[in-house]
């Protein structure tokens, strides 16, 4: 074999190795390029995920916010309940007061209706016409009215004149009078507790 043939054989053997190296280098470059393209979107996704986190509440923050809302709701319910209780207490007080006033009004009306009977009985007693069983009945009636309903007769000759409890039907002056007082009891008055059902009708004497 001549030297030229040997050289040709060497060239034939070296050429495939160069091609192989070139091919492998191209494949490596392509794989590197592909890897870079595939990793970039993932990095962008992670970056996007990190940017959305500051705008969101954690589970603990959400739980604390819910607790605050519930506490506010409980406070409002307590205020509503307190107002309802106050309204109910006010209603009970007004109802009791109205019931007491109605009862007192009813008792007063009955006593006013009996005052005429008591006036006639008192006049009959003064004239000595109220004796025996009839007198005992009237006395028991007067005692019952005073004991159970606090009805009292008032008005006496000689007591100081008081326009709050006396009604002057007659008036005169006298040199002997030192103060203004009741000189004549025309009709007694009646008091139911502190309430004047009827003032005593009197004749008044005043100093000159």
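^ structure tokens above, recovered residues below v
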């Amino acid at each position: 074999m001549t030297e030229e043939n040997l050289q040709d054989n060497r060239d034939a053997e070296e050429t495939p190795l160069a091609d192989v190296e070139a091919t492998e280098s191209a494949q490596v470059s392509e794989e590197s390029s592909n890897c870079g393209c595939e990793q970039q979107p993932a990095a962008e996704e992670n970056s996007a995920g990190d940017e959305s986190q500051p705008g969101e509440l954690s589970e603990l923050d959400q739980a604390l916010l819910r607790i605050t809302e519930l506490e506010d709701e409980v406070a409002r319910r307590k205020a509503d309940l307190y107002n309802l209780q106050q309204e109910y207490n006010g209603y009970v007080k007004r109802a009791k007061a109205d019931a007491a006033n109605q009862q007192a009004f009813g008792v007063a009306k009955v006593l006013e209706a009996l005052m005429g009977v008591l006036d006639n009985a008192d006049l009959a007693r003064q004239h000595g016409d109220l004796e025996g069983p009839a007198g005992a009945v009237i006395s028991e009636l007067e005692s019952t009215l005073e004991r159970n309903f606090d009805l009292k007769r008032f008005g006496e000759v000689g007591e100081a004149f008081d326009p709050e409890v006396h009604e002057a039907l007659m008036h005169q002056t006298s040199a002997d009078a030192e103060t203004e007082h009741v000189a004549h009891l025309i009709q007694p008055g009646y008091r139911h507790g502190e309430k004047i059902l009827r003032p005593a009708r009197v004749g008044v004497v005043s100093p000159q």
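The beta strands are 151-154, 166-174, 181-187, 189-192, 195-198, 200-207.
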